[in-house]
Write a structure and sequence with these properties.
single chain; 281 residues; 15% strand
């Protein structure tokens, strides 16, 4: 009597190795990376300026709202960078699933403008006669003036008079003022830190980063990118909530004191600061 394998028995096919076809879809990969980075769809939409509906559609592998392959590839590259994901494999996967990379649009043909031949006209004798008369009058006047100047010069030499010569004036060089050194961000942070409020200054000395700041009521104070060298200062009577997209590129000054935490490059940090010592709430 033979006993058949039950449906619960393990078969060799269940132990087959991981294949390339088993990789997650494009939308699933973006969704997993976003969750791992601690970001919501609203955070990604605010950081990339891609509409929330399009972000939701792409995470469901629906690229129709993008409006074409060119826009879909651009959205994929932007969203991948926002969630710290390499966009190159996603673009290659998209091209393989949608018929390859779109061909460039051919340039419009150039047409050479027809040259217009100028119309031939006869010589303008009136203008030529006027020019000749003006030239003669000018020559006669020049001769008379030179004759008078020659006589005056001869008389001046005979009387032994000497022409006046003027010495060139020396101009004193104007002293240049030394340029003022650039202000230290910590100086401005300390100066703008009243005792009855919480003051947070965010600077981007090492690169570009996205930040979001809210007050104690949840009102959005700022949402956008800081370029390298830019600085933003936020104040509230109770607390400031921060979300830092690339915390490693930023430096914080809380209530006039520099925060010495070593944030990792590309890391997303959610911080809350209140009055008193600069400690994370």
């Amino acid at each position: 009597m033979s006993i058949g394998n039950s449906p619960d028995d393990n078969s060799p096919q269940d132990e087959r190795p991981f294949e390339e076809d088993d990789r997650p879809s494009i939308g699933r990969a973006l969704q997993q990376a976003r969750i791992a980075a601690g970001l919501t769809v609203d955070d990604v939409s605010n950081a990339t300026r891609v509409r929330i509906a399009i972000v939701h559609a792409i995470e469901q592998d629906d690229f129709a709202p993008c409006g074409g392959d060119v826009y879909a590839r651009g959205h994929l590259k932007t969203l991948a960078r926002a969630v710290n994901l390499d966009p190159v494999p996603l673009l290659a996967q998209y091209d393989a699933e949608h018929g390859g990379r779109p061909a460039p649009t051919p340039a419009a043909p150039m047409f050479e403008a027809e040259r217009i031949r100028p119309e031939r006209r006869g010589p303008n004798w009136t203008a030529a006669m006027v020019a000749a008369i003006v030239a003669v009058i000018g020559f006669v006047g020049f001769t008379l003036v030179n004759g008078d100047d020659g006589e005056g010069a001869g008389t001046q030499v005979a009387e032994g008079s000497t022409p006046n010569t003027s010495k060139p004036t020396k101009s004193k060089p104007t002293p240049t003022k030394p340029t003022d050194p650039k202000p230290d961000p910590s100086d401005s942070a300390i100066a703008a830190a009243p005792q009855d409020k919480v003051t947070v200054q965010v600077t981007a000395p090492d690169g570009r980063s996205w930040i979001s700041a809210k007050d104690h009521n949840g009102r959005l104070l700022f949402d956008g990118f800081l370029k390298q060298g830019d600085s933003k200062t936020f104040q509230d009577k109770e607390k400031i909530d921060l979300v830092l997209g690339d915390a490693g590129a930023l430096q914080l000054y809380v209530n006039g004191k520099k925060i010495e935490d070593e944030f990792q490059p590309g890391g997303v940090e959610r911080l809350t600061y209140t009055k008193g010592d600069p400690e994370v709430g």
